[in-house]
Automatic annotation (TrEMBL):
<dbReference type="InterPro" id="IPR054209">
    <property type="entry name" value="DUF6916"/>
</dbReference>
<protein>
    <recommendedName>
        <fullName>DUF6916 domain-containing protein</fullName>
    </recommendedName>
</protein>
<dbReference type="Pfam" id="PF21880">
    <property type="entry name" value="DUF6916"/>
</dbReference>
<feature type="domain" description="DUF6916">
    <location>
        <begin position="7"/>
        <end position="96"/>
    </location>
</feature>
């Protein structure tokens, strides 16, 4: 599993526009990384940043921790919060502080 304690915003920048596979109890869905944004200084080694994903219309995910996989970054568990509903589906954010 990827160590998110020291992960930086810059590590995600090359993967904006790429798909991440999200594991669900009854299957999986794909989230596309839309943004990786620095949000100031943080107490963590990798600095503070947020990641924004676009998900499908269904399933609509609840706030919670989800296991995700990316071909280069590997497996990670992220706390996702639904932040917007668009015609294409829902957007989710993970914040690292």
């Amino acid at each position: 599993m990827t160590n998110l304690q020291t992960m930086t915003c810059e590590a995600f920048h090359p993967h904006v526009g790429q798909d991440f596979l999200l594991s669900l109890t009854d299957g999986s869905c794909v989230l596309k990384l839309l943004e990786a944004s620095a949000i100031g200084t943080g107490a963590r080694d990798g600095g503070a940043f947020s990641l924004l994903w676009q998900g499908p219309v269904t399933p609509a995910l609840h706030q919670g921790t989800y296991e995700m996989t990316h071909e280069k970054l590997g497996e990670m568990a992220l706390f996702l919060v639904p932040v917007a509903q668009k015609d294409a589906g829902f957007q989710y954010e993970a914040v690292f502080t």
